[in-house]
């Protein structure tokens, strides 16, 4: 019976999981290499800007154990869950260094009977081909002496409806016994279905396919937005119309780019992984190309509107609203705003940056100063603060052009105020 849980990596995935397991009565120890984060968590403060997590960490202080010492966390654990980052490098190749490092730590303290679960998003085959050999350096054999499982993380930061406790999970294992043991644990903490797949590769591929599906459909909408813009068609109206069909259509939305640690990253895992089988993912490569073009396309929309009034990006006072990759979170990983920022600076803009959640990226004191200094706005993140703004305030601050990279504002009302409006496909 599982009583003690060790979770390696206390980031956006591992920390919520650790809190949930602790709430369900397990003895949980979080293993985190960032000693600053460890000290914060021990003090009952959260290093992630999330209201729910901040409350959880505060209330679980002293209950949720946190350490940077593998010897303290790993030997006594009944189940060890690896939740470390799996990014891509500058060549878009999968970087498994964190998985390897976690595996080496586990191997040094591995004992018979433990359940090792990899939750990190990886390419099909990684658990068996990369993690298993590292763990078996302990002289213990996976599937015989310990269980090896993959249960891909499913979490959507900022989502008020779907969270870690109610999202269904899938898992695969080397053995049916390992799958059953892991299912029993996840079923005890998650109020949702737990589906066992035939093997590890199928479980690994599930998460990659989910996010690649989203990337492809967003790319389709981005291409439609570019096309409809030239045809004088409002893409948001078309999506609104198509969404009334009760079958065979799932709405996705165009924007200034795709960010986060999953959607812009996971397709590259499939693209790269397929090469060893001499298969080329042309569809995924094209989707990535389209979505990666959107920051430049968005900046070009601003340049075109400036040209119409005899201005250029160079020397213009441009306000960039939003650096986080999605609304109402502070996560800037892979955010298209970063590329937009680079392009605007490269073109010589005088740039003012404001994000109420990612304040470390701001170069103005507050929103008032942001509007005061900006002549033209580019909206890259649809934070509630901005979507709920009284639009007259934009007129009061003499904003002349708005490029709405998230199609989140009232186009007609802005135009009625005498402000030039341009969205993505509208």
Number of strands: 13
Number of domains: 2
Number of helices: 17
CATH architecture of the largest domain: 3-Layer(aba) Sandwich
Helical content band: 40-55%
> How can the largest sheet be summarized?
8 strands, mixed
Helix-and-strand structural type: alpha/beta
Helix-strand pattern, N to C?
A: EHEHHEHEHEHEEHEHHHHHEHEHEHHEHE
Radius of gyration: 24 Å
Measure the end-to-end span.
57 Å
Basic shape: globular
How does this structure look, described?
The protein is α/β, with parallel strands linked by helices and 426 residues long. The protein folds into two domains: 4-198, Rossmann fold (3-Layer(aba) Sandwich), CATH 3.40.50; 208-426, 3-Layer(aba) Sandwich (Rossmann fold), CATH 3.40.50.720. The chain has helices at residues 14-23, 35-42, 51-59, 70-73, 97-109, 126-135, 176-189, 200-231, 235-242, 266-275, 282-292, 294-308, 336-346, 367-373, 384-387, 392-396, 411-416; strands at 4-8, 27-31, 65-67, 79-82, 115-118, 147-150, 169-173, 194-196, 317-321, 350-354, 376-379, 401-404, 420-423. The strands form two sheets. The protein has an eight-stranded mixed beta sheet with strand order 3-2-1-4-5-6-7-8, sandwiched between helices. Strands 10-9-11-12-13 form a five-stranded parallel beta sheet, with helices on both faces. Strand 9, helix 13 and strand 10 form a beta-alpha-beta unit. Helix 10 (266-275) packs antiparallel against helix 11 (282-292) and helix 12 (294-308) packs across helix 13 (336-346). The protein is globular, with a radius of gyration of 24 Å.
């Amino acid at each position: 019976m599982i009583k003690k849980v060790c979770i390696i990596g206390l980031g956006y995935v591992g920390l919520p999981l650790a809190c949930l397991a602790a709430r369900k009565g397990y003895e949980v120890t979080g293993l985190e290499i960032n000693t600053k984060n460890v000290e914060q968590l021990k003090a009952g403060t959260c290093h992630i800007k999330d209201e729910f997590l901040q409350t959880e960490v505060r209330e679980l202080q002293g209950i949720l154990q946190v350490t940077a010492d593998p010897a303290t966390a790993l030997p006594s654990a009944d189940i060890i869950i690896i939740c470390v980052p799996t990014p891509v490098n500058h060549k878009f190749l999968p970087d498994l260094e964190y998985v390897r490092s976690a595996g080496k730590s586990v191997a040094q303290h591995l004992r018979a009977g433990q359940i090792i679960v990899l939750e990190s998003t990886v390419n099909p085959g990684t658990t068996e081909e990369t993690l298993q050999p590292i763990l078996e350096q302990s002289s213990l054999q996976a599937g015989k002496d310990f269980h090896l499982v993959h249960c891909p993380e499913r979490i959507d930061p900022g989502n008020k409806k779907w969270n870690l406790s109610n999202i269904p999970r899938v898992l695969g294992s080397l053995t049916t016994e390992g799958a059953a043991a892991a299912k029993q644990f996840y079923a005890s903490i998650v109020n949702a279905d737990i589906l066992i797949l035939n093997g590890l590769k199928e479980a690994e591929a599930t998460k990659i396919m989910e996010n690649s599906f989203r990337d492809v459909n967003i790319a389709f909408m981005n291409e439609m937005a570019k096309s409809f813009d030239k045809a004088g068609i409002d893409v948001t109206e078309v999506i609104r119309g198509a969404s009334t069909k009760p079958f065979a259509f799932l709405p996705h939305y165009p924007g200034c780019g795709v960010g986060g640690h999953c959607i812009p990253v996971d397709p590259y895992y499939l693209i790269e992984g397929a090469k060893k089988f001499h298969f080329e993912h042309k569809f995924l490569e094209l989707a990535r190309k389209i979505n990666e073009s959107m920051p430049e396309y968005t900046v070009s929309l601003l340049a075109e509107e400036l040209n119409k009034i005899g201005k250029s990006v160079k020397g213009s006072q441009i306000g960039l609203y939003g650096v986080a990759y999605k609304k109402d979170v502070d996560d800037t990983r892979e955010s298209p705003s970063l590329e937009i920022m680079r392009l605007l600076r490269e073109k010589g803009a005088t740039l003012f940056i404001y994000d109420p959640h990612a304040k470390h990226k701001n170069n103005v004191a507050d929103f008032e100063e942001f509007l005061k200094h900006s002549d033209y706005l580019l909206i890259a993140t649809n934070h509630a603060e901005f979507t709920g703004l009284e639009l007259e305030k934009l007129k009061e601050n003499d904003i002349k052009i708005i490029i709405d990279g998230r199609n989140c504002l009232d186009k007609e009302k802005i135009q009625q105020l005498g402000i030039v409006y341009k969205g993505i496909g509208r």
